[in-house]
Every structure is written in structure tokens, then in C-alpha cells.
């Protein structure tokens, strides 16, 4: 009997396996994130949970600073260099990333010590910020090496395992009535564990030696190459967290906790759109060279994504009360209305994610930066106008306006690039 194995090339088989592991890891992370949020929301209460979510928001705004020399630069460099230069490539990237991450961590701690945040928020952020020291320098560099081989299983399996252990430790700390300020260090422990496991794996694959070396010209190249992409990613993450940054100034932490609870669930739902885009990109976008065919593929992908997001949002809208009540408890009843509106953001977010594939395909870095600068500016202006009038719902309007602005840039670029 003929089987797929006989016809599939090793590259296709490896890519398919990689996608399966990526999907399993994302689904595990989503399930663990929802479970942990539910446990912490009930244990902390709305006010402290709002501070916890705000500390995480600050971390997610600060973290992109450490993404210098991203995978779009590092992975092709690994692929195109001779194998004997691997240690020099990874060593140079590591030195750059560890230096930037250390500076970002010290500045974060300095800001906390200077009292720039609420004391409890600062205590939570102090532990969470340590993740910056391990994620990009250790996990990011070794993961780039794994990506260059289309073999992300070790990193994904480690990430899944540590996430499950973290969930168990969160439950144990809650049972022990641990101070909320201590929970951030659990995230630091998780990132350190992932980095240590991957480092040991790399050393074992290379005869018991690390063999990383600094090459100054390559270091300078990594420090400057990809800067536009890096700035674009910083703008994108600032846009995604701008709602909570601006709401913190106008509403109580308890209300911010309810808003963040709704958005936590919604962002996990939107992640599915990103997973869909990552899964479909190689076959339907990146490998297609004919402009007419690519244009047809984009129309079909956007239509399919819109239908999926609308269908999912409709179901989540109808089940909003049940979901919020069972995940977060009765103290978060006020999050139900926010969640019902927030889930519809998945429609423009999904369409934007699909449109962004063409921007990435042609490495249009200035388009990417301009897009997220525009989305950030639009969201900021709408938030200034609508949050004083509508409160948390005004922040949702700002997010919607920003997503639509980003999608509009995608549409314009696609029309320009694929014009027959």
C-alpha cells in the first residue's frame, strides 16, 4: 500500500512535525495560562489581580527591548554560514542579547526602586523582569539554532513541561497562602529552567563543549541589522498593551483586574488566529511566487479567517457569562460585558495577521514599522477621547481602531505589491 512517507521529502516531513509540535505547545500554553489566571484571580481578588496583570503588562512592554538581533536575522545567518562557524554566530548573538537584557533588567529594577510603580506592582515586576535575562540570551539563541534545522521539538517540549510544572507550583503556593509579591519569581524560575535545559541539550549535541565565541564585526552586524524590524515589534507590543497602560491611570486596580481577566481570555482566543497564520504561511504564501495566485490565496485565507473568527466570537459571546464565572469566579462578573465585546476584536486581529504574511514574505520592514506606528498613534488618540467617556469599553474601541488601521496598511501594501 502506498503511503505518504514514500512521497514526502525529509524537509516536508520535518516541517510538518515541527508544526504539530508548535500547535501542541501553543494549546498547552493557552490551557495553562487560563488555568493559572483563574487560580490567581480567585486567590488575589480583583484589586490585587489587577496589579498582577498590570505588572505583566509592563513586562510585555519591556521585553521587546531584548529582542535585538531577531530570528529573521539570526536564523538565516546560521543557515548561510559554514557549520564550523556556528559557535561564533551564536556566541556573538548571545553576548549582544545578554548585554541588552542585563541593561533592561537593571533599568527596570531602578525604576521600581525609584517608586515609579505601585509598591505591590513593583514587587511583582521585580521577579517577572528576571525572565528577560534568560528568555532571549539563552532560550532565544538556542531556539534560533533549532529553527535553522526546522527542529523545534526540544524547545517546545521543554516549554510545555515547565508550563505544567509552573501551574502545579502556582497551586501549591496558593495553598500555602504565599504573598502575591513572590509569584513573579516563579516565572523567573521557569525561564531559567528552560534556558538551562536547552543549554545542556546544545552542549550534549556538540560533544560536551559549548564552543561559543565573540566575533566583533559580527557583533556589530547583529547590533545594527534588523533594527527596523525590532522597532516595529516594540511598537506592536506597545499597541497591544496600550489599553491597560492608559486604563491604569483612569480606573481602579479592581476594575483593571476585571478588564484584564476578560482580555486574558480574549488574547488567548486571538492567539489561534496567529497559529493559523503561522501554519498556513509556508504553503500558501511564502512558497508562492506567482502574483495572481498569491492574490487569490490571500483572498481565500482572509475570508476563511474572517468566518472562523466570526463563528468563534459568536459562540464566546453567547457563553461569556458561563466562561467568566467558571474561570474567574463571581467577583469578576463585571468582566462578562467586556469579554462579550472584546471577542469580536478577533475578527480584525485575524485578518490583520493574515495580511501581515505578505509584509513578512517580502521583508517589508519599513511597512511593518509604519503600520504599527500608525496603529499605536490611532489607538492612543482614540483612547484619549473614548476612555474618559466609556471607561474600559473605550479602550476596546481604541484597540479596534488600531487593528483596522494596521489592516488598512496591509491591504494597501498587498494591492501595491500584487498589482497585476
Structure report:
The chain has 420 residues and is mainly alpha-helical. The protein has 2 domains: 8-225, no CATH class; 245-420, no CATH class. The protein has 17 helices and no strands. The protein has helices spanning 4-7, 10-62, 71-80, 86-113, 119-128, 132-148, 153-175, 184-205, 216-224, 227-247, 253-286, 291-318, 320-328, 335-342, 346-361, 365-390, 392-417. Helix 16 packs antiparallel against helix 17 (392-417). The radius of gyration is 22 Å and the shape is globular. The relative contact order is 0.11. Residues 1-7 have low confidence and may be disordered.
Q: Concise description?
A:
82% of the residues lie in helices and 0% in strands.
Write the layout of secondary structure elements.
Layout: H1 4-7, H2 10-62, H3 71-80, H4 86-113, H5 119-128, H6 132-148, H7 153-175, H8 184-205, H9 216-224, H10 227-247, H11 253-286, H12 291-318, H13 320-328, H14 335-342, H15 346-361, H16 365-390, H17 392-417
Feature tags:
420 residues; mainly alpha; 17 helices; 0% strand; globular; disordered N terminus
Q: Radius of gyration from the CA trace?
A: 22 Å
Low-confidence stretches: 1-7
Number of helices: 17
Strand and helix order? HHHHHHHHHHHHHHHHH
Head-to-tail CA distance between termini: 44 Å
Which oligomeric form is depicted? single chain
The largest sheet is: none
Strand content: under 5%
How many strands? 0
Shape: globular
Give the overall average pLDDT: 90
Specify the helix fraction band: over 70%
The domain count comes to: 2
Structural class of the secondary structure composition? mainly alpha
Amino acid at each position: 500500500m502506498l503511503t505518504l512517507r514514500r512521497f514526502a521529502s525529509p524537509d516536508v516531513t520535518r516541517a510538518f512535525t515541527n508544526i504539530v509540535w508548535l500547535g501542541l505547545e501553543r494549546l498547552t500554553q493557552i490551557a495553562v495560562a487560563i488555568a493559572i489566571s483563574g487560580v490567581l484571580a480567585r486567590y488575589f481578588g480583583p484589586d490585587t489581580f489587577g496589579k498582577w496583570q498590570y505588572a505583566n503588562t509592563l513586562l510585555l512592554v519591556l521585553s521587546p527591548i531584548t529582542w535585538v538581533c531577531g530570528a529573521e536575522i539570526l536564523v538565516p545567518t546560521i543557515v548561510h554560514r559554514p557549520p564550523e562557524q556556528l559557535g561564533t554566530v551564536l556566541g556573538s548573538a548571545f553576548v549582544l542579547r545578554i548585554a541588552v537584557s542585563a541593561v533592561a533588567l537593571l533599568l527596570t529594577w531602578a525604576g521600581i526602586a525609584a517608586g515609579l510603580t505601585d509598591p505591590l506592582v513593583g514587587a511583582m515586576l521585580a521577579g517577572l523582569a528576571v525572565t528577560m535575562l534568560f528568555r532571549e540570551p539563552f532560550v532565544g539563541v538556542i531556539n534560533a539554532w533549532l529553527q535553522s534545522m526546522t527542529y523545534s521539538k526540544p524547545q517546545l517540549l521543554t516549554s510545555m513541561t515547565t508550563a505544567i510544572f509552573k501551574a502545579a507550583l502556582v497551586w501549591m503556593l496558593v495553598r500555602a497562602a504565599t504573598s502575591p509579591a513572590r509569584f513573579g519569581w516563579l516565572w523567573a524560575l521557569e525561564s531559567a529552567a528552560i534556558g538551562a535545559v536547552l543549554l545542556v541539550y546544545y552542549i550534549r549535541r556538540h560533544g560536551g563543549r559549548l564552543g561559543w565565541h565573540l566575533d566583533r564585526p559580527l557583533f556589530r552586524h547583529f547590533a545594527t541589522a534588523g533594527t527596523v524590524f525590532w522597532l516595529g515589534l516594540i511598537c506592536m507590543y506597545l499597541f497591544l498593551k496600550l489599553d491597560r497602560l492608559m486604563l491604569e491611570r483612569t480606573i481602579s486596580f479592581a476594575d483593571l483586574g476585571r478588564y484584564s481577566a476578560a482580555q486574558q481570555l480574549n488574547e488567548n482566543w486571538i492567539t489561534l488566529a496567529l497559529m493559523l497564520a503561522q501554519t498556513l504561511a509556508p504553503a500558501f504564501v511564502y512558497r508562492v511566487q506567482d502574483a495572481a495566485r498569491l492574490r487569490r490565496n490571500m483572498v481565500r485565507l482572509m475570508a476563511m479567517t474572517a468566518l472562523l473568527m466570526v463563528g468563534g466570537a459568536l459562540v464566546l459571546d453567547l457563553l461569556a457569562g458561563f466562561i467568566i464565572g467558571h474561570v474567574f469566579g463571581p467577583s469578576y462578573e463585571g468582566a462578562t460585558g467586556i469579554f462579550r465585546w472584546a471577542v469580536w476584536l478577533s475578527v480584525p486581529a485575524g485578518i490583520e495577521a493574515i495580511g501581515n504574511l505578505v509584509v513578512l514574505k517580502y521583508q517589508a520592514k519599513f511597512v511593518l514599522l509604519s503600520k504599527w506606528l500608525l496603529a499605536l498613534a490611532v489607538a492612543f488618540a482614540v483612547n484619549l477621547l473614548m476612555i474618559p467617556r466609556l471607561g474600559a469599553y473605550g479602550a476596546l474601541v481604541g484597540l479596534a481602531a488600531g487593528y483596522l488601521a494596521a489592516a488598512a496598511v496591509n491591504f494597501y501594501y498587498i494591492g501595491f505589491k500584487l498589482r497585476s
